[in-house]
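Following the same procedure, sequence and fold were stored together, as reproduced here:

>
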Amino acid sequence: MDEVLFRSPRKRGRVAVFLSGRGSNFLALREAVDRGTIDAEIALVLSNKADAPGLLKARESGLDAVFLDPKAFAAREDYDRAVLAEVERRRVDLVCLAGYMKVLTPALCEALRHRAVNIHPALLPSFPGLHVQRKAIDWGVRVSGCTVHFVAAEVDAGPIILQAAVPVLQDDTEETLAARILAEEHRIYPEAVRLYFQGRIEVRGRRVFILGPGA
Protein backbone atom coordinates (compact mmCIF):
# COMPACT_ATOMS: atom_id res chain seq x y z
CA MET A 1 0.00 0.00 0.00
CA ASP A 2 1.24 3.48 -0.85
CA GLU A 3 2.44 5.71 1.96
CA VAL A 4 -0.14 8.12 3.35
CA LEU A 5 1.01 11.57 2.23
CA PHE A 6 -1.86 13.60 3.66
CA ARG A 7 -5.09 13.34 5.59
CA SER A 8 -7.48 16.25 5.71
CA PRO A 9 -8.21 17.88 9.06
CA ARG A 10 -11.36 17.22 11.04
CA LYS A 11 -12.27 20.74 12.10
CA ARG A 12 -14.36 23.79 11.39
CA GLY A 13 -12.38 25.25 8.54
CA ARG A 14 -11.63 28.57 6.93
CA VAL A 15 -12.03 28.67 3.15
CA ALA A 16 -10.75 31.05 0.48
CA VAL A 17 -12.41 31.08 -2.93
CA PHE A 18 -10.45 32.35 -5.95
CA LEU A 19 -12.50 33.37 -8.99
CA SER A 20 -12.29 35.39 -12.19
CA GLY A 21 -15.85 35.37 -13.48
CA ARG A 22 -19.48 34.84 -12.55
CA GLY A 23 -18.70 32.70 -9.52
CA SER A 24 -21.42 30.07 -9.83
CA ASN A 25 -19.32 27.48 -8.02
CA PHE A 26 -18.53 30.06 -5.36
CA LEU A 27 -22.27 30.53 -4.85
CA ALA A 28 -22.75 26.74 -4.60
CA LEU A 29 -20.05 26.61 -1.92
CA ARG A 30 -21.47 29.62 -0.08
CA GLU A 31 -24.96 28.10 -0.07
CA ALA A 32 -23.58 24.83 1.34
CA VAL A 33 -21.76 26.78 4.06
CA ASP A 34 -24.91 28.77 4.86
CA ARG A 35 -26.93 25.53 5.14
CA GLY A 36 -24.35 24.03 7.46
CA THR A 37 -23.57 21.23 5.01
CA ILE A 38 -19.93 22.32 5.02
CA ASP A 39 -18.43 22.86 8.47
CA ALA A 40 -16.50 25.97 7.48
CA GLU A 41 -16.68 29.69 6.93
CA ILE A 42 -15.65 31.62 3.82
CA ALA A 43 -12.81 33.79 5.08
CA LEU A 44 -11.76 35.29 1.74
CA VAL A 45 -12.97 35.70 -1.84
CA LEU A 46 -10.11 36.79 -4.10
CA SER A 47 -10.13 37.76 -7.76
CA ASN A 48 -7.69 38.91 -10.42
CA LYS A 49 -10.57 40.77 -12.11
CA ALA A 50 -11.95 43.93 -10.52
CA ASP A 51 -15.32 43.55 -12.24
CA ALA A 52 -15.76 39.81 -11.73
CA PRO A 53 -19.47 39.24 -10.98
CA GLY A 54 -18.52 36.67 -8.35
CA LEU A 55 -16.43 39.24 -6.48
CA LEU A 56 -19.32 41.72 -6.52
CA LYS A 57 -21.68 39.03 -5.19
CA ALA A 58 -19.22 38.28 -2.39
CA ARG A 59 -19.16 41.96 -1.40
CA GLU A 60 -22.95 42.12 -1.47
CA SER A 61 -22.98 39.14 0.91
CA GLY A 62 -20.68 40.93 3.33
CA LEU A 63 -17.75 38.59 2.75
CA ASP A 64 -14.12 39.66 2.77
CA ALA A 65 -13.63 40.26 -0.99
CA VAL A 66 -10.25 41.27 -2.40
CA PHE A 67 -9.17 42.32 -5.88
CA LEU A 68 -5.46 41.91 -6.61
CA ASP A 69 -4.40 43.51 -9.87
CA PRO A 70 -1.83 41.37 -11.72
CA LYS A 71 -0.69 44.47 -13.63
CA ALA A 72 0.61 45.96 -10.38
CA PHE A 73 3.25 43.23 -10.09
CA ALA A 74 6.42 42.81 -12.12
CA ALA A 75 6.25 39.01 -12.28
CA ARG A 76 3.84 36.13 -11.70
CA GLU A 77 5.91 35.06 -8.72
CA ASP A 78 5.47 38.47 -7.09
CA TYR A 79 1.73 38.33 -7.65
CA ASP A 80 1.42 34.86 -6.17
CA ARG A 81 3.47 35.88 -3.13
CA ALA A 82 0.91 38.62 -2.53
CA VAL A 83 -1.91 36.09 -3.01
CA LEU A 84 -0.31 33.76 -0.46
CA ALA A 85 0.04 36.64 2.00
CA GLU A 86 -3.71 37.31 1.76
CA VAL A 87 -4.41 33.63 2.39
CA GLU A 88 -2.04 33.29 5.33
CA ARG A 89 -3.21 36.56 6.90
CA ARG A 90 -6.68 35.07 7.21
CA ARG A 91 -5.44 31.66 8.44
CA VAL A 92 -7.12 29.88 5.54
CA ASP A 93 -7.22 26.09 5.68
CA LEU A 94 -8.40 25.38 2.13
CA VAL A 95 -8.30 27.37 -1.11
CA CYS A 96 -11.04 26.57 -3.63
CA LEU A 97 -10.40 27.63 -7.22
CA ALA A 98 -13.76 28.45 -8.81
CA GLY A 99 -13.20 29.66 -12.34
CA TYR A 100 -9.90 31.33 -11.43
CA MET A 101 -8.31 32.01 -14.80
CA LYS A 102 -4.70 32.24 -13.69
CA VAL A 103 -2.24 29.37 -13.57
CA LEU A 104 -0.69 29.17 -10.12
CA THR A 105 3.11 29.32 -9.99
CA PRO A 106 4.92 26.18 -8.79
CA ALA A 107 5.95 28.03 -5.63
CA LEU A 108 2.34 28.82 -4.73
CA CYS A 109 1.26 25.26 -5.56
CA GLU A 110 3.91 23.95 -3.19
CA ALA A 111 2.96 26.41 -0.44
CA LEU A 112 -0.66 25.25 -0.74
CA ARG A 113 0.11 21.56 -1.20
CA HIS A 114 -3.02 19.60 -0.23
CA ARG A 115 -4.59 22.92 0.79
CA ALA A 116 -5.92 23.93 -2.64
CA VAL A 117 -8.55 22.26 -4.80
CA ASN A 118 -10.02 22.96 -8.23
CA ILE A 119 -13.12 22.01 -10.22
CA HIS A 120 -12.57 21.09 -13.88
CA PRO A 121 -15.40 20.53 -16.41
CA ALA A 122 -14.12 17.22 -17.80
CA LEU A 123 -13.26 13.74 -16.58
CA LEU A 124 -9.56 14.13 -15.95
CA PRO A 125 -7.04 13.07 -17.07
CA SER A 126 -8.96 13.54 -20.34
CA PHE A 127 -9.22 17.07 -21.72
CA PRO A 128 -7.21 19.27 -19.38
CA GLY A 129 -6.95 23.01 -20.07
CA LEU A 130 -9.53 25.17 -21.82
CA HIS A 131 -12.47 24.65 -24.22
CA VAL A 132 -13.03 21.17 -22.88
CA GLN A 133 -16.68 20.83 -23.94
CA ARG A 134 -15.65 21.59 -27.52
CA LYS A 135 -12.92 18.96 -27.26
CA ALA A 136 -15.35 16.37 -25.90
CA ILE A 137 -17.78 16.96 -28.77
CA ASP A 138 -15.03 17.05 -31.41
CA TRP A 139 -13.57 13.77 -30.15
CA GLY A 140 -16.99 12.14 -30.12
CA VAL A 141 -16.78 10.88 -26.54
CA ARG A 142 -20.00 9.40 -25.18
CA VAL A 143 -19.40 10.51 -21.60
CA SER A 144 -17.90 13.68 -20.15
CA GLY A 145 -18.33 15.25 -16.73
CA CYS A 146 -16.39 17.10 -14.07
CA THR A 147 -13.56 16.52 -11.62
CA VAL A 148 -12.60 17.95 -8.24
CA HIS A 149 -8.87 17.58 -7.74
CA PHE A 150 -6.01 18.85 -5.66
CA VAL A 151 -4.01 21.64 -7.29
CA ALA A 152 -0.53 20.77 -8.55
CA ALA A 153 2.10 22.64 -10.53
CA GLU A 154 1.12 20.75 -13.69
CA VAL A 155 -2.24 22.14 -14.79
CA ASP A 156 -5.24 19.88 -14.07
CA ALA A 157 -2.97 17.03 -12.98
CA GLY A 158 -3.34 16.88 -9.19
CA PRO A 159 -4.83 13.88 -7.36
CA ILE A 160 -8.51 13.34 -8.16
CA ILE A 161 -10.96 13.68 -5.25
CA LEU A 162 -14.42 13.31 -6.82
CA GLN A 163 -15.84 12.96 -10.32
CA ALA A 164 -19.31 12.99 -11.87
CA ALA A 165 -20.18 11.60 -15.29
CA VAL A 166 -22.46 13.37 -17.78
CA PRO A 167 -23.59 11.77 -21.07
CA VAL A 168 -22.70 13.58 -24.27
CA LEU A 169 -25.75 13.68 -26.51
CA GLN A 170 -25.53 13.56 -30.30
CA ASP A 171 -27.14 16.98 -30.68
CA ASP A 172 -25.12 18.63 -27.90
CA THR A 173 -23.47 21.99 -28.40
CA GLU A 174 -20.71 23.36 -26.19
CA GLU A 175 -23.36 25.38 -24.36
CA THR A 176 -25.84 22.56 -23.70
CA LEU A 177 -23.12 20.17 -22.57
CA ALA A 178 -21.52 22.83 -20.37
CA ALA A 179 -24.86 23.56 -18.68
CA ARG A 180 -25.42 19.91 -17.72
CA ILE A 181 -21.85 19.56 -16.49
CA LEU A 182 -22.18 22.76 -14.44
CA ALA A 183 -25.12 21.29 -12.54
CA GLU A 184 -22.89 18.40 -11.49
CA GLU A 185 -20.06 20.77 -10.57
CA HIS A 186 -22.42 22.52 -8.16
CA ARG A 187 -23.18 19.15 -6.57
CA ILE A 188 -19.74 17.57 -6.20
CA TYR A 189 -17.63 20.63 -5.33
CA PRO A 190 -19.44 21.31 -2.03
CA GLU A 191 -19.40 17.56 -1.34
CA ALA A 192 -15.60 17.42 -1.73
CA VAL A 193 -15.15 20.38 0.62
CA ARG A 194 -17.55 18.80 3.12
CA LEU A 195 -15.49 15.59 3.12
CA TYR A 196 -12.27 17.59 3.47
CA PHE A 197 -13.32 19.17 6.74
CA GLN A 198 -14.76 15.91 8.03
CA GLY A 199 -11.22 14.53 7.93
CA ARG A 200 -12.24 11.90 5.37
CA ILE A 201 -9.84 12.64 2.51
CA GLU A 202 -6.56 10.76 2.46
CA VAL A 203 -3.85 10.94 -0.22
CA ARG A 204 -1.80 7.81 -0.84
CA GLY A 205 0.69 8.18 -3.68
CA ARG A 206 -1.31 10.03 -6.29
CA ARG A 207 -4.62 8.38 -5.32
CA VAL A 208 -7.24 9.91 -3.05
CA PHE A 209 -9.20 7.65 -0.72
CA ILE A 210 -12.53 8.70 0.79
CA LEU A 211 -12.67 7.37 4.33
CA GLY A 212 -15.81 6.27 6.15
CA PRO A 213 -17.55 8.61 8.61
CA GLY A 214 -16.04 6.89 11.64
CA ALA A 215 -12.49 6.55 10.30
